[in-house]
Amino acid sequence: MPREDDPESADLAREREVEWQQIIDNFGDRAVLEPDEEQPFAVVQPRFERDPEEIEIEVRDQVHPSDAFVPPTPPPLPRPPADRLMAWIGVFGVPAVVLVCVVAGISVPSWVGFLMAAGFVGGFGYLVVKMSDEPRDPWDDGAVL
To answer: At a CB cut-off of 8 Å and minimum separation 6, what does 10 contact?
Structure first.
């Protein structure tokens, strides 16, 4: 805020007020730009020295089929033990069955609902109990080569 006793700050305040008034007076007007008389760049038309039909395609990265890399067949997926398989079926299978029943409008008896809830909770609890208590190796990123 300008001080009243300082003449320089009063002049500065008047200049700012005039500038703001000009901005407000011209608000919404579009600036008209005059076109430059000279173009900043020259327009160049492309010229083909050879006929496009005569251009030969040169392929440098051809690999002979006998030199191509063929990855080895991956090992079969490991099978979980039966107890863990049942736990995973309880964790993922029960919600899938419940979803299908809800979407299809199938009503199940209450005792079946209790069994499904027990299967889900029991499977989840079993997997939590069987988790390893040892901390993971901090340098192990999980990749196996």
So the answer is: 2, 3, 4
